[in-house]
Write a structure and sequence with these properties.
The structure is a homodimer. By secondary structure, chain A is an alpha+beta fold. Chain A contains 18 helices and 12 strands. The first copy, chain A, folds into 4 domains: about 1-120, Butyryl-Coa Dehydrogenase, subunit A, domain 1, CATH 1.10.540; about 155-300, Butyryl-CoA Dehydrogenase, subunit A, domain 2 (Beta Barrel), CATH 2.40.110.20; about 325-460, Butyryl-CoA Dehydrogenase, subunit A, domain 3, CATH 1.20.140.10; about 465-610, no CATH class. In chain A, helix 2 packs parallel to helix 5, helix 10 packs across helix 13 (about 475-495) and helix 14 (about 505-525) packs parallel to helix 18. At the A-B interface, helix 9, helix 10, helix 11, helix 12 and helix 16 of A face helix 9, helix 10, helix 11, helix 12 and helix 16 of B.
């Protein structure tokens, strides 16, 4: 089955995305326009991204003291992406956008992630940056910055972390002080001077675009000159590398942001990752040191804007992880069909006089391929489901929108974490299918594995997702999100019970869901966060497996014979992948929940000096 | 706790290795001489290996058309290792050996694996090669080759795989034909000419030593010129890079073995990995093309010699995996104590006005550290236990020796596979503890993770170990090995039942062991290998977890208060690591055995065109 066929099945047969075109925002669209976008992306990814994925790994970004040098192929890929209008794919037609649903935009971007996650600079960051400005910036900020980002003239970054504050944003120390007496009269927004250091900034410096628009979190000191502890004191600023006028024309003034160094990474090497100094005086501007920044929204509400984008960013990370997994699946499937070795196991063992068979004929190789298929397609389905929830939240009827938003809050930690863990594992299996060859750089799979390892770290580490899920999301509105999810899972189970081929899976999922519910209650039974959260990560894993099992069962229901004209091999493949997940993986849930429901204290009571 | 303290506890308190000195072979040894060897290795590893572990990764071996260039540090490390006499550590004093028990030799080598698995060329390969000659070569071969390997003048390789035959040795096509009429009169052994290509040959070409002694598998054609299918036709040959006389002096004749290329690997980069052409005519020798090789042992018995060394080689791989895991554990433990971020979770959540704490204070970081400790120390204990079985097999009373040999056969697939999988996972957690920093090359953990990924592949892949275990080893002598293992596990359980602190774990292990036994029977209930072996890998995983749980329970029994004068923090650490394994990991066994005992056919019945 081709990836495209799987994607089309999930979008149309399973999620019925075409029905979104009944809504005014998407009225200009239909199955054909969606297909045209996917065709375009499939072609662009194949032509501009896939062929240079290894190149951007070996020709890592380097700093010559003045500029960050990237391969020409990165520039070409970034330009092709921008010229296709993809940076504004989901935006209003009025700013040059295509008004695509989020789910279709995500599906379109999936091709690029699969072809080369580190190719093309950081197009998706630019979109995300501009989208944030469209949601929270002033019209003047949108005109001066966002529209130029959509056009590909400017690139965007997100500057959150600092060397001493990665997971803990409340500890950032970048300071923003009003820039002189007239600071509030600035047309681009209240003008501040920023000083501080930002770490892990993707695409923080490069020559791909005329300008780079940094969105930076900083704290405005109180009257006593001190920073407010915690996240309440955080504000959001636009800090362009080059200052611009109201129309986004460069004024020629270099802003006081400079590259302190490149991070040399295990993977994801196509995208330069930087340490940036804000306001150190290397590029004094308008009379002095300090990076000029324009406040977005109101002081102290910086995280609100960021969190608005967070769900989407985390779905994008999850989808990226799923797609790197899918790339490894495709590579190892191809290899397994071509590589011959060994003989089938017969009743009398193996007959070495027979010619060797393609290794796809061996049960253990099939296991490794089927696991990859099950994890990567399951993850893809989950990400598309979540993206569809984003659309519902934005364009659905009020009650549906509210439900979608609530469900999305609950599912986001899973959408981020599950593919980051399991599609990485899929990449490891892709190496294993290749044997020794998979361990060499002559095959792509080792790079996929390295690239994918990032996804458990950025946009909130695995541990942070776990705390978010068990510490916040399951408690949301008195457990309303959990109830909502349980309702949807139970609806799927109910439908499965009517299908002889799927009823047993329905039963198993029902058991796992109940177990999850009991464990959630048991974790919080004493009301002590310290006890409840001690095993948040095993909880996250168990929760993720229940969600993916539900997604698979729902997909399998959609692939039942009467459902339509689907290809029989495709149907069998989906059902086998579903069955794999229920037989091999869902049973792990019980083991993971054990420590959760007993509030096992082995880890939290471990003393530092016992290690 | 230092690694050395853990090692000493396992060697002396748990395995009582000192008692080996009661046996004639080890009579010259005692706790002091063992300690002196360990001290020496600890120092050498710290001085010559650890400081250059990153260097040998970045300065990968390269071929200048004539020679393979390695960093000078590799040469220095290799020389220091050889000069310390470690190449012959377990050999007879008569060939310059130390007559160390295998378990002490392995423990000594652990320091080097932990400090830099790819540093020092491939010393352990050289030992293994020479040891094989001591066991299966003629006295003349030992004198001409092995003794010079022990002295560090010659290096050794193992040439088994070919490009088309990695896991499937029965398919090798390297041919060996008698070298002229007088071929049997050669003092160094019957002389053949070899032609063929060998792949994945570690240290196949370098300038570290005067000569390289290849031990190569090849087939001697039958009278019809055809090769015998299967492994029965395989013979073993010594193929030196430079020909030598009876005393191992170089004759100046270059043998017809040449480097076809270097493999560029994901990790383990310090050791050049090569594709070698045997007999292609690049270096015609003694009148013609064809690599001169001397038969070791009898024709057709080549694999017997190799398999003799296989158990030890696989223990060494497992121990290497455990040690790379341990290196990551140490690095992440150090980092977690120094890095501050976040606040403790209190009843009212977190107070951002408090100063951040070292991340080792967070439950999830403790979980990641404790998991690493549990997996890596558990793996280390298993490897030492297996090495102790090797000693028992070699120097024990006849019945004990036979039992040890049988148990070793059963445990070897676990000793090879379990650390390869779980200590790799430990390395991933070491990255995770470091957050974004762990993803950079400024910290050592990403390299550990890359290095360790090899171990599931070489010396028999994971899948091959699984087939060996469920397809051969558990059936051995009508299940005698399984009975023997069960007896030992039950003995540990019985002792645990008398310890209030451990009785619950004893119960759990008893349940898991019984489950494993039932699943083994159920897998083979139909007698069809195809059905039994379809889920051999989940079986391997479950079996491995039962074995490690047993090892931990046995170690924990040894760490009970009355046992001696051990450090209280060390005791608590071992008990916590044991408890971690029983609470968090052993419950997974039930999930893995599910597909085994139902002979689930999801994977094996998957059609190629459903993927």
């Amino acid at each position: 089955m081709t990836f495209r066929a799987t994607l089309d099945f999930l979008l149309h047969d399973w999620l019925a995305v075409e029905r979104l075109c009944e809504r005014p925002r998407f009225a200009e669209h239909g199955r054909e326009t969606f297909a045209a976008v996917l065709d375009l992306c499939e072609t662009l990814a194949a032509e501009k991204f896939a062929p240079v994925n290894r190149l951007v790994d070996t020709e890592e970004p380097r700093f010559d003291g003045e500029r960050v040098i990237l391969p020409a192929a990165t520039q070409a890929a970034a330009r092709a992406y921008a010229e296709a209008g993809l940076l504004a794919a989901s935006q209003d037609a009025s700013v040059g956008g295509m008004q695509l649903p989020c789910v279709v935009e995500m599906a379109a971007n999936a091709f690029f992630s699969k072809a080369g996650i580190g190719v093309g600079g950081a197009n998706m960051l630019t979109s995300g940056n501009a989208n944030l400005l469209m949601a929270h910036g002033s019209p003047a900020q949108q005109r001066a910055f966002a529209v130029h980002e959509y056009a590909g003239r400017f690139a965007g970054t997100m500057c959150l972390s600092e060397p001493q504050a990665g997971s803990s944003l409340s500890d950032i120390t970048t300071r923003a002080v009003p820039d002189g007496a007239g600071f509030e009269a600035e047309p681009l927004g209240p003008r501040y001077r920023l000083r501080g250091t930002k770490m892990w900034i993707s695409a923080g410096e490069h020559e791909l675009t005329e300008n780079i628009v940094h969105l930076a979190l900083a704290k405005i000191p109180g009257p006593d000159g001190r920073l407010v502890p915690g996240t309440r004191g955080i504000s959001l600023f636009i800090v362009p590398k080059w200052l611009v006028d109201a129309d986004g024309r460069l004024t020629g003034e270099r802003n006081d942001v400079s590259l302190a160094g490149l991070n040399h990474k295990l993977g994801y090497r196509g995208i330069p990752n930087t340490l940036l100094n804000f306001g150190e005086g290397r590029h004094p501007v308008r009379g002095g040191a300090g990076a000029v920044g324009y406040l977005v929204g109101r002081p102290g509400e910086g995280l609100k804007g960021m969190f608005h984008m967070m769900n989407e960013a985390r779905i994008a990370v999850g989808l990226g992880a799923a797609m790197i997994g899918m790339a490894g699946y495709e590579a190892s499937l191809t290899y397994a069909k071509l590589r011959t070795q060994g003989r089938p196991v017969g009743a009398a063992g193996k007959d070495p006089a027979q010619p060797p068979i393609p290794i796809i004929g061996h049960a253990d190789v099939k296991r490794m391929l089927l696991a990859q298929k099950s994890w990567c397609e399951g993850a893809l389905a989950l990400e598309l489901y979540c993206a569809r929830l984003v659309d519902e939240q934005r364009t659905g009827a009020p009650e549906d929108a509210a439900q979608a938003g609530l469900l999305l809050e609950l599912l986001t930690p899973i959408a981020k974490s599950w593919p980051s863990q399991w599609c990485l594992e899929a990449n490891s299996l892709a190496i294993q299918v290749h044997g020794g060859y998979g361990y060499t750089r002559d095959f792509p799979v080792e790079q996929y594995w390295r690239d994918n390892r990032l996804n458990m770290i950025h946009e909130g580490t695995h541990g942070i997702q776990a705390l978010d899920l068990l510490g916040r999301k399951v408690l949301l509105d008195g457990g309303a999100a959990m109830k909502l999810l349980a309702g949807r899972v139970n609806a799927t189970i109910e439908r499965a019970m009517a299908e002889p081929a799927l009823a047993a899976f329905g039963n198993e999922l029902a058991g796992a869901l109940q177990h999850l519910g009991r464990a959630t209650k048991a974790a919080w039974a004493t009301g002590q966060p310290e006890e409840a959260l001690a095993n948040a990560t095993p909880y996250l894993q168990a929760f993720g497996h229940v969600v993916i099992a539900w997604v698979w069962l729902d997909v399998a229901l959609c692939a039942q014979p009467r459902a339509g004209r689907m290809d029989e091999a495709q149907r069998q493949g989906l059902l086998a992948a579903c069955r794999y997940f229920f037989r091999h993986d869902l049973p792990l849930v019980a083991a993971w929940l054990k420590v959760v429901e007993t509030r096992d204290d082995t880890c939290r009571t471990m003393h530092e000096d016992w290690f």
